[in-house]
Amino acid sequence: xxxxxVNSTSRNINxxxxxxxxxxxxxxxxxxxxxxxSFGKVFLAKRRHDEKYYAVKVLQKxxxxxxxxxKHIMAERNVLLKxxxxxxxxxLHYSFQTKDKLYFVLDFVNGGELFFHxxxxxxxxxxxxxxxxxEMASALGYLHSLNIVYRDLKPENILLDHEGHIILTDFGLCxxxxxxxxxxxxxxxxxxxxxxxxxxxxxxxxxxxxxxLGSVLYEMLFGLPPFxxxxxxxxxxxxxxxxxxxxxxxxxxxxxLLQGLLEKDGxxxxxxxxxxxxxxxxxxxxxxxxxxxxxxxxxxxxTPRVVSICFLPSKQKNQKKLNILxxxxxxxx
Length: 333
Fold this sequence. Notes:
Blueprint: E1 28-36, E2 40-47, E3 53-60, H1 61-66, H2 70-82, E4 92-97, E5 101-106, H3 114-121, H4 126-145, E6 148-149, E7 158-160, E8 166-168, E9 175-176, E10 188-189, H5 196-199, H6 207-222, H7 232-241, H8 252-261, H9 276-280, H10 290-294, H11 319-322, E11 331-332
Helix pairs in contact: 4-6, 6-8
């Protein structure tokens, strides 16, 4: 176990026990930066002893301490440790720490962000959107079964693996200990996907994830989130008060699901009574065999064109692509 008391001089904060106390940074060759966030970077790294590739998230303890973000970092680590067995959640192999940094050794998922594919194609055909939404719903239902609310479902946090299956990543905004009857009131999320009850700063429960699921489905079908506006205040007003507008190009079952998920009153939203059981029973998913889905027996409708690791571009060199929607900033207060 790597643990030490908080030391104001060294900033060597205790971030909990490590899954691998013998691990160290020199175990890896850090090849490329493939992600960059507020607290550190994500590297493509090759582990020297077996030459396997991983995504290694490296967080600066000093930045975490200065921003008082220990609880979010530990929430991410705890969720990762709990959920390594679910097929649609990114897996944590182990974590370790040095005096100045915390390391998460994660699955390397190389099919690209759903956000990238959606920006490239603008919209997805309904069968493709249905496949992705079903896999997302399965992952969210699993988190809810562990009393965890995800709170930040959006295309940027959804990756595709090399076969084309969904992988949810970035668990920094997860809230633990929230059962079907529990609530929280943290103002948290990304503007385009905030549920009305979060905007109103009312107590909310895991149904906020079903609102986000509806927002992502709408965006995949029509190209933008359902209440989007460049003016954030107008967008918030739309989320709170504007009715969901019926648009051509989607089936009646798709609209029924969207109306259920994007119900402004969380107590009447689809999933408010039986959570994932209600979602998977909806007629939109009548063609989905859920057992086959979780076992990855259903062929994905799209196979990403995976770039060779040798030629994988640095995320720093692709900021134009990654900053297409500048408004998608994280909110947490």
